[in-house]
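Inputs:
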Amino acid sequence: MSLTAPAVKPGMSRDDLMMRGGVVLLAGVLLVMLGLPLWALLAKGFEDRDGKFIGLANYVSYFSTPALFQSALNSLHVASITTVIVVPLAFLYAYALTRTVLPMRWLFQGISLIPIFAPSLLPGIALIYLFGTQGFFKALLGDGSIYGIDGIVIAQVFYCFPHATLILTTALATADARLYEAADVLGASKRRVFFTVTLPGAKYGLISAALVVFTLVMTDFGIAKVIGGNFNVLATDVYKKVIGQQDFSMGAVVGMVLLAPAALAFLVDRLVQRKQVALLTARAVPLVPRPKFARDVLFTMFCLLVSAAILTILGMAIWGSLIKYWPYNLSLTLENYDFAKFDSNGWESYWNSVRMALGAAVFGTLLMFTGAWLNEKTRGFGAMRGVVQFLAFLPMAVPGLVLGLGYIFFFNAPNNPLNFLYATMGILVLNTVAHFYTVGHLTATTALKQIDPEFEAVSASLKVPIWKTFVRVTAPICLPAILDIAIYLFVNAMTTVSSVIFLYAPDTKLASVAAVNIEEAGTTAAAAALCVVIVLTSAAVKAAHLVADRFLFARLQVWRRR
Amino acid sequence: MIAMTNYLEVRSLSKQFGTFTALGDVSLDVVEGEFVCFLGPSGCGKTTLLRAIAGLDPQTSGTIRQKGRDVSALPPAQRDFGIVFQSYALFPNLTVADNVGYGLVNRRQARGAIAKRVAELLAMVGLPDAGPKYPAQLSGGQQQRVALARALATSPGLLLLDEPLSALDARVRLRLRHEIKALQRTLGVTTIMVTHDQEEALTMADRIVVMNHGAIEQVGTPQEIYRRPATAFVADFVGSMNFLSGTLMAPDRVRVAGVDFTCPAQDGLAPGQKVSLCIRPEDVRVRDLPADSANRVPVEVAELDFVGAFCRATLKARAASDVAVTADFSSNLIRDLGVDIGTRLDIALPPDRVRIFA
Ligand SMILES: Nc1ncnc2c1ncn2[C@@H]1O[C@H](COP(=O)(O)OP(=O)(O)OP(=O)(O)O)[C@@H](O)[C@H]1O
Ligand SMILES: [Mg+2]
C-alpha cells in the first residue's frame, strides 16, 4: 500500500470556469437584489433621523411606545384568527378536491384560485360595498362595523384561501392507496382511518399551510389599509412611519419587527419539511376516490358554499365598479374605468403594471432558471453554491414591505453607484423579481432535478460545451417549468402592492398602487375598477397559458409522445 | 508474441466519500483494444472506478495514465472517452440522428459529412432508418444502440459502459451482448464495461476485474477467473462452488470430516490451518471412476433439483451426513445410472479441480 498517495486536485475545464464564474456573478446579483438592501435596512434601524449611529435607542423607543407595540399584538391576533379559520376550511376543500368524487372538479379547483389573481385590496373593497357604512347588508352587523378586525379577518380569509388550498391539495394528493387498503383489510373504522392515516399523512401539509397563511396575514398591507379603520397592524405602521411621517429609522425598526415572525415561520417550515422526505416512496400507489353518495353530496354542498362566497366577493367588486353612485344610483356605467378622472396617471398606471410584469417575467425567468441551472450543475464549489442557495431562499422569509424599505435605503444612498436605478422601472422589476425569487428558483430546481443527471457528462465526453447543451437540450426540456415561472412572476407582479409601494416614481406608478391611492382619496368605485382590470389581466394570462399548454405546446413537443 | 502496450494505467487509486472509502488503493492495467469488465456485487465501487477513469467524479488520490498521458487531474472534457449510461441519457427532444451527431456538429464539419457519418453509425448499430425518430419512439434495446452510436461517433480511444444492458429484458440483453462484443472487436476500441451479471462478464470480456468492498480481488481472463479463482470471494461470486471446511494436514492434503483429500500443493499455508476445500458442482465426477481414484467418497442422493439442461443434486456423505456436496448431473447420466433420491453412489473430487482457500 502506498503510504501517502498525493491527493488529486482536479483540474478545471473551460466549462467549469464558466460555470463558476456564473455562480459568482449570480451570487453578486442576488447580493445586490437582496442581501445588501436587507443589510441597509438592518443598519438603518440603529441610526437616528440624521444618520448617526445610536445603538438600540430606536428599538427601545419602539417597545416603549404602547401604540406601536399594540400594532404588533394586533398583527399577531389577526394572523392567528385567520389561520385558525382558513386552514380547516382549506383542508375540507382540498379533501373534497382530492378524496371525494366531485362533479366538475376542475371548476371548483379553478374558483378556489381566483383570489390569487387579485390584489389584496379587492376583498377589502368588496366588503365595503357589502357591509360598509352604506353597504347592502350593513343592517346584519347591527351596531358593529366592518372597518376593523372583523373586516380584516374576512378579507384575509379570502386572500389566503387559495394558498392554503394549493398546499393541502398537494399534501392530500400524494397519499398512498396501499395504506388505505391495509387499513380496510384490518377493519379500521372510517373515523379511525381518518385520524390514523389521513391526518398524519397531511400533517406536514397542514403545518406548512398554517405557517404560510400566518406569514401572509402578518405581512399583507393592502387589506389592513383599506378596511382596517383604526385597527393598526405592523404593515400599516411601516407605511405610516415612512410615507406619512418620513421617519425612516422607525420604519426600519417596525420592518425588522415584521421580519421576525415571517423569518421564524419560514425556519420552522424548513425544519419540519426536512423530516418529511422519507415519508413518500417512489412506489406509492396513487389513491383514486370511489363514489360514495352521502359523502359526495355533503362535500359538493360545502364546495358550492365556499365557491359562492368567493364569487360573491369578486362579483361585488365587479358590480361595484360598474355602478354610477353607490348606493343611490345603481344604474350601470363604465365611467369608473375612465381612470384619468381619479388619478393623474389615468390608464398609464395600468400599462406601467403590464410593462413591469412583462419585464419581471422575462428578466426574472431568465435569471431564476439560468441561476438554478448554474447552481445545480456546477461541479464542486460547494461553499459558493451554498451562499447562492441561502440567498435564493431568503425572500421567502422577507415580507415585501420590508424588502421595499431596504430598497429605499440601499438604492437611494447617494454614494451607491446603482443610485441611477432609483425611481425607474428597473428598480420595480428588480424588486419584484427579488421578492418572488424563491418559488421560481424552487420550480426551476425541481424541474432540473427531474431530468437525467448524465446529460452534462455525455456532452463533456463529446466535447460539447455545457452551455450548448443548456440551450439545445436542458432549456427546451424544461420549457413547461420555464413558462410556469414566467406566469407566476407576471401574475404576482400585476397584483403586488406591498413591495413596490415605496419605490414608484410619478411616471412609474403601478395599477395596484394607484388603486390604493384612489381608494385613499375615497373613490371606492374607481379603485374597484382598477382591481377588476388587474384580475382580468392576470386571469387572462393564466388562461392563455393553460390553453397554450393544451394545444400549441403539444405540437411544439412532439418528442414527448410515444 | 506482439509487445502489448498498456492503454490505461491506474495506480493506487482511492476515493473517499466523507469517511467512507469507496475505493481503496486500486491499481489496474488495461491493454489497448481490450474488452475489460468490472464485475462485483452492488456497492463494491465499480461505478466509482469507472467515473474516476472518466474524470466525472475525480479520485481522492492516485494516478491515471491514458495512452502514456497523465490524465489524473484533467476534467472529463479534456479526456478521450465515449460513455454509455444505464439510463442511456439520450436527449429526448432531439431526433436519433441529432443525438448521434451531437458531438460531430461541434467539430465544424460540413453538414453533408456529418449526415454521412451519422448514417454510417446508425447502419453500424443496425438502425439505418431510425434517424428521424425521437428516442421515446424506440424500444429500450434500440435506445441502447443509439446511445452506443452516439458514444462512438467521435471515434474515442476508450469506450466506457456502465451497466448498459441491465435495463433490458433477458432476450434483448442476450442479443445485444453479442452485438456489442462484435462491434467492439471490429472497431478495436479499448472498452471497459461495468456489470454485476457474471454471465455477461464471462461471455463478453477479454479480462474480468472482480471487485469487492472497493478493492480488486482478482484480474484475469474469464477462464482464469472461473477455473482458478484467487480468493474465496471470487470462487463464491463467480459460478457455483461447494465450500467444505476442513484442516490442512500436509501441503497437498486436507482433512474434511475425518476423511483426507488430495489437493494441489499449497505453499502459502501452514499445516494445521483451517481451510475451505472447494469444488464446482460440474467438476464432481460420478462416471467411470477408476478403482483407485483419489478423493473418492461414498454418498447418498438427498435432493434432486431439475434446472433444465441438467439436475443439481445434493449429495450427503454416507460417513458424515452433515457434509453435503452439490453436483451437476446431466439427464443422460441420471437415466443411465438410474439416479433418484436415496440412490447410493460413489463420487470423486478430481484433485486438479479442487481449490483450497484459507
Ligand atoms: N456520492 C456519494 N456519496 C456517498 N457515498 C457514495 C456516493 N457514491 C457512491 N457512494 C458509495 O460508494 C460505494 C460504491 O458505489 P458504486 O456506485 O461505485 O457501486 P457499484 O459497484 O457501481 O454498485 P451498483 O452495482 O449498485 O451500481 C457504495 O457503497 C455507495 O453507497
Ligand atoms: Mg453502479
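The pocket of magnesium ion (ligand 2) is lined by residues B 46-47, 194 (CB under 6 Å). Flag for discussion at group meeting.
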